[in-house]
Amino acid sequence: MTDRTILVVGGTSGIGLEIARDTIARGDRVVLTGRDQAHADEVAASLGDRATGVALDISEPEAIAGHLAGVGRIHGLVLAAIERDANSVREYSIERARRLVTLKLVGYTEVIHTMLDRLDPTVDTGIVLFGGRAKDLPYPGSTTVSTINGGVEGLTMTLALELAPIRVNALHPGIIGDSPFWASKPEGVLDGYKARTPGGELATMEDVVDATQFLLRNRGISGTSIAIDRGWRIT
To answer: Could you read off the pLDDT of 145-161 as tens digits, one per residue?
Structure first.
Protein backbone atom coordinates (compact mmCIF):
# COMPACT_ATOMS: atom_id res chain seq x y z
CA MET A 1 0.00 0.00 0.00
CA THR A 2 1.28 3.47 -0.87
CA ASP A 3 0.27 6.88 0.42
CA ARG A 4 0.07 5.72 3.99
CA THR A 5 0.43 8.08 6.96
CA ILE A 6 3.04 7.26 9.58
CA LEU A 7 3.21 9.03 12.93
CA VAL A 8 6.81 9.47 14.10
CA VAL A 9 6.99 10.58 17.73
CA GLY A 10 10.35 12.27 18.19
CA GLY A 11 10.68 12.95 14.48
CA THR A 12 12.25 16.41 14.49
CA SER A 13 15.87 15.37 14.99
CA GLY A 14 18.34 12.51 14.86
CA ILE A 15 17.18 9.06 13.85
CA GLY A 16 13.51 10.04 14.11
CA LEU A 17 14.02 12.73 11.49
CA GLU A 18 15.81 10.27 9.21
CA ILE A 19 12.88 7.86 9.55
CA ALA A 20 10.47 10.66 8.64
CA ARG A 21 12.58 11.65 5.64
CA ASP A 22 12.81 8.06 4.39
CA THR A 23 9.09 7.50 4.86
CA ILE A 24 8.31 10.44 2.60
CA ALA A 25 10.82 9.18 0.03
CA ARG A 26 8.83 5.93 -0.06
CA GLY A 27 5.69 7.84 -1.04
CA ASP A 28 3.99 7.98 2.35
CA ARG A 29 2.92 10.90 4.52
CA VAL A 30 4.41 11.72 7.91
CA VAL A 31 3.13 13.35 11.06
CA LEU A 32 6.21 14.15 13.14
CA THR A 33 6.28 15.40 16.70
CA GLY A 34 8.66 17.55 18.72
CA ARG A 35 8.34 19.43 21.97
CA ASP A 36 8.05 22.84 20.30
CA GLN A 37 5.36 23.58 17.70
CA ALA A 38 7.41 26.18 15.84
CA HIS A 39 10.33 23.78 15.50
CA ALA A 40 8.06 20.89 14.48
CA ASP A 41 6.48 23.10 11.82
CA GLU A 42 9.90 24.21 10.58
CA VAL A 43 11.16 20.63 10.25
CA ALA A 44 7.95 19.51 8.56
CA ALA A 45 8.18 22.38 6.07
CA SER A 46 11.74 21.36 5.21
CA LEU A 47 10.45 17.90 4.28
CA GLY A 48 7.72 19.17 1.96
CA ASP A 49 3.96 19.10 1.81
CA ARG A 50 3.72 15.42 2.79
CA ALA A 51 4.89 16.21 6.33
CA THR A 52 2.98 17.77 9.24
CA GLY A 53 4.40 18.90 12.58
CA VAL A 54 2.74 18.50 15.98
CA ALA A 55 3.93 19.70 19.40
CA LEU A 56 4.13 16.84 21.90
CA ASP A 57 6.09 16.14 25.09
CA ILE A 58 5.44 12.53 26.06
CA SER A 59 7.02 13.05 29.48
CA GLU A 60 3.71 14.80 30.28
CA PRO A 61 1.32 11.93 29.48
CA GLU A 62 -1.87 13.62 30.71
CA ALA A 63 -1.55 16.13 27.84
CA ILE A 64 -0.86 13.58 25.08
CA ALA A 65 -4.48 13.04 24.02
CA GLY A 66 -5.09 16.75 23.62
CA HIS A 67 -1.96 17.32 21.54
CA LEU A 68 -2.79 14.41 19.22
CA ALA A 69 -6.47 15.27 18.86
CA GLY A 70 -5.96 16.75 15.41
CA VAL A 71 -4.12 13.74 14.01
CA GLY A 72 -6.30 11.63 11.73
CA ARG A 73 -6.09 8.02 10.64
CA ILE A 74 -2.60 6.53 10.57
CA HIS A 75 -1.16 3.34 9.14
CA GLY A 76 1.95 3.01 11.28
CA LEU A 77 3.46 4.44 14.46
CA VAL A 78 7.11 4.93 15.39
CA LEU A 79 7.95 5.87 18.98
CA ALA A 80 11.48 7.23 18.63
CA ALA A 81 11.44 9.96 21.30
CA ILE A 82 14.30 9.43 23.74
CA GLU A 83 16.33 11.31 26.34
CA ARG A 84 19.86 10.54 27.45
CA ASP A 85 20.59 10.44 31.15
CA ALA A 86 23.43 9.38 33.45
CA ASN A 87 21.93 8.47 36.82
CA SER A 88 23.93 6.23 39.14
CA VAL A 89 22.62 4.59 42.30
CA ARG A 90 25.18 6.39 44.48
CA GLU A 91 24.12 9.81 43.17
CA TYR A 92 20.50 9.05 42.37
CA SER A 93 18.17 11.72 41.02
CA ILE A 94 14.56 10.74 41.57
CA GLU A 95 13.38 13.65 39.43
CA ARG A 96 15.42 12.61 36.38
CA ALA A 97 14.57 8.94 36.85
CA ARG A 98 10.86 9.68 37.13
CA ARG A 99 10.93 11.80 33.96
CA LEU A 100 12.68 9.11 31.91
CA VAL A 101 10.47 6.29 33.19
CA THR A 102 7.41 8.37 32.41
CA LEU A 103 8.64 9.36 28.97
CA LYS A 104 9.19 5.84 27.66
CA LEU A 105 7.03 3.45 29.64
CA VAL A 106 4.02 5.68 30.32
CA GLY A 107 4.38 8.12 27.42
CA TYR A 108 4.85 5.44 24.76
CA THR A 109 1.87 3.50 26.09
CA GLU A 110 -0.36 6.56 26.30
CA VAL A 111 0.42 7.56 22.70
CA ILE A 112 -0.65 4.09 21.56
CA HIS A 113 -3.75 4.23 23.77
CA THR A 114 -4.66 7.64 22.37
CA MET A 115 -4.16 6.65 18.72
CA LEU A 116 -5.64 3.16 18.92
CA ASP A 117 -8.95 4.09 17.33
CA ARG A 118 -7.05 5.79 14.49
CA LEU A 119 -4.61 2.96 13.78
CA ASP A 120 -5.86 1.20 10.67
CA PRO A 121 -5.66 -2.61 11.27
CA THR A 122 -6.85 -3.37 7.74
CA VAL A 123 -3.46 -2.51 6.19
CA ASP A 124 -1.27 -4.63 8.48
CA THR A 125 -0.41 -1.78 10.79
CA GLY A 126 2.94 -1.83 12.56
CA ILE A 127 4.11 -0.09 15.74
CA VAL A 128 7.82 0.29 16.45
CA LEU A 129 9.13 1.21 19.91
CA PHE A 130 12.69 2.39 20.54
CA GLY A 131 14.66 0.94 23.42
CA GLY A 132 18.43 0.59 23.49
CA ARG A 133 21.28 -1.85 24.04
CA ALA A 134 21.89 -0.56 27.56
CA LYS A 135 19.28 -3.09 28.65
CA ASP A 136 21.86 -5.84 27.98
CA LEU A 137 25.11 -3.86 28.11
CA PRO A 138 24.95 -1.54 31.13
CA TYR A 139 27.58 1.09 31.81
CA PRO A 140 28.33 3.32 34.82
CA GLY A 141 25.38 5.68 35.23
CA SER A 142 22.97 3.62 33.11
CA THR A 143 20.81 2.46 36.02
CA THR A 144 17.67 4.22 34.78
CA VAL A 145 18.35 3.80 31.06
CA SER A 146 19.11 0.07 31.35
CA THR A 147 15.99 -0.53 33.43
CA ILE A 148 13.71 1.41 31.11
CA ASN A 149 15.00 -0.22 27.95
CA GLY A 150 14.41 -3.60 29.54
CA GLY A 151 10.89 -2.37 30.24
CA VAL A 152 10.44 -1.47 26.58
CA GLU A 153 11.14 -5.10 25.67
CA GLY A 154 8.47 -6.29 28.09
CA LEU A 155 6.05 -3.62 26.89
CA THR A 156 6.57 -4.76 23.31
CA MET A 157 5.54 -8.31 24.13
CA THR A 158 2.41 -7.45 26.07
CA LEU A 159 1.27 -4.88 23.49
CA ALA A 160 1.77 -7.38 20.67
CA LEU A 161 -0.55 -9.75 22.50
CA GLU A 162 -3.18 -7.17 23.45
CA LEU A 163 -3.32 -5.30 20.15
CA ALA A 164 -3.19 -8.13 17.59
CA PRO A 165 -3.66 -8.07 14.61
CA ILE A 166 -1.77 -4.77 14.96
CA ARG A 167 1.90 -5.74 15.15
CA VAL A 168 4.24 -4.32 17.80
CA ASN A 169 8.04 -4.63 17.73
CA ALA A 170 11.04 -2.86 19.24
CA LEU A 171 14.45 -1.72 18.06
CA HIS A 172 17.39 -1.53 20.45
CA PRO A 173 20.20 0.46 18.80
CA GLY A 174 23.73 0.29 20.13
CA ILE A 175 26.26 2.98 19.31
CA ILE A 176 25.18 4.56 16.02
CA GLY A 177 28.40 6.08 14.77
CA ASP A 178 26.97 8.73 12.45
CA SER A 179 24.13 9.87 14.72
CA PRO A 180 24.39 13.50 15.86
CA PHE A 181 25.24 12.46 19.42
CA TRP A 182 28.12 10.14 18.53
CA ALA A 183 29.38 11.91 15.42
CA SER A 184 30.03 15.02 17.54
CA LYS A 185 32.44 13.18 19.84
CA PRO A 186 36.16 14.09 19.64
CA GLU A 187 38.24 12.28 17.07
CA GLY A 188 39.29 8.83 18.22
CA VAL A 189 36.49 8.32 20.77
CA LEU A 190 34.67 5.83 18.56
CA ASP A 191 37.76 3.78 17.70
CA GLY A 192 37.50 1.66 20.82
CA TYR A 193 33.85 0.89 20.15
CA LYS A 194 34.57 -0.05 16.55
CA ALA A 195 37.26 -2.47 17.71
CA ARG A 196 34.60 -4.37 19.69
CA THR A 197 32.47 -5.25 16.67
CA PRO A 198 33.30 -8.28 14.50
CA GLY A 199 33.65 -6.13 11.36
CA GLY A 200 35.35 -3.18 12.99
CA GLU A 201 32.53 -0.78 12.11
CA LEU A 202 29.55 0.72 13.92
CA ALA A 203 25.91 0.61 12.91
CA THR A 204 24.59 3.69 11.07
CA MET A 205 21.41 5.72 11.04
CA GLU A 206 20.63 4.16 7.66
CA ASP A 207 20.73 0.74 9.33
CA VAL A 208 18.23 1.88 11.96
CA VAL A 209 15.94 3.48 9.38
CA ASP A 210 15.98 0.33 7.27
CA ALA A 211 15.13 -1.84 10.29
CA THR A 212 12.28 0.50 11.24
CA GLN A 213 10.74 0.30 7.79
CA PHE A 214 11.12 -3.49 7.85
CA LEU A 215 9.22 -3.74 11.13
CA LEU A 216 6.52 -1.35 9.96
CA ARG A 217 5.80 -3.50 6.91
CA ASN A 218 6.76 -7.12 7.52
CA ARG A 219 3.63 -9.14 8.27
CA GLY A 220 5.49 -12.01 9.90
CA ILE A 221 7.08 -10.14 12.79
CA SER A 222 5.41 -9.18 16.07
CA GLY A 223 6.45 -9.15 19.71
CA THR A 224 10.11 -9.07 18.70
CA SER A 225 13.05 -6.96 19.88
CA ILE A 226 15.91 -6.43 17.42
CA ALA A 227 19.38 -5.22 18.39
CA ILE A 228 21.20 -2.99 15.91
CA ASP A 229 24.83 -2.95 16.96
CA ARG A 230 26.92 -4.74 14.30
CA GLY A 231 27.20 -7.80 16.52
CA TRP A 232 28.89 -5.94 19.38
CA ARG A 233 27.87 -8.48 22.00
CA ILE A 234 29.44 -11.51 20.29
CA THR A 235 33.04 -10.24 20.36
So the answer is: 999 999 999 999 999 99
